[in-house]
Design goal:
Strand content: under 5%
Low-confidence stretches: none
Mean pLDDT: 85
Structural class: mainly alpha
Order of helices and strands: HHHHHH
Distance between the termini: 17 Å
Number of domains: 2
Radius of gyration: 16 Å
Helix content: 40-55%
Shape: globular
Number of helices: 6
Largest sheet: none
Number of strands: 0
Length: about 100
């Protein structure tokens, strides 16, 4: 996600991933636009399109990691780090007033 949001060389990536997020499931995309200079993808947003990436890169290796404290700890961690914004009033305003807030 840092490569999408923080790397100035990848300014077009955010538009690409927004199109992916708003497209029909399993729609074809030109994955080379965002993955050509990389040898691996970790976490979001790539993990959200795992089936599509398997299709585009059939020889790719997948590493499954497990939270050392189990699924409940993973869920709590996810809610505290990724989804915490859903509880913030500022995010609710963005969702309501902008097209990209969703």
């Amino acid at each position: 996600m840092l490569e999408v949001l923080k790397n100035d060389e990848n300014k077009s990536y955010l538009d690409f991933w927004c199109k992916v997020a708003n497209s029909e499931p399993c729609m074809q995309h030109d994955w080379e636009l965002v993955f050509s200079k990389y040898t691996a993808a970790v976490d979001n947003p790539a993990c959200c399109v795992l089936r599509e990436l398997f299709s585009a890169y059939p020889d790719a290796k997948v590493l499954l990691t497990l939270h050392p404290k189990g699924t409940e700890a993973w869920y709590d961690s996810t809610m505290d780090t990724i989804y915490f914004t859903e509880k913030m009033w500022r995010v609710k305003v963005l969702e309501f007033t902008t097209s990209f807030g969703r």
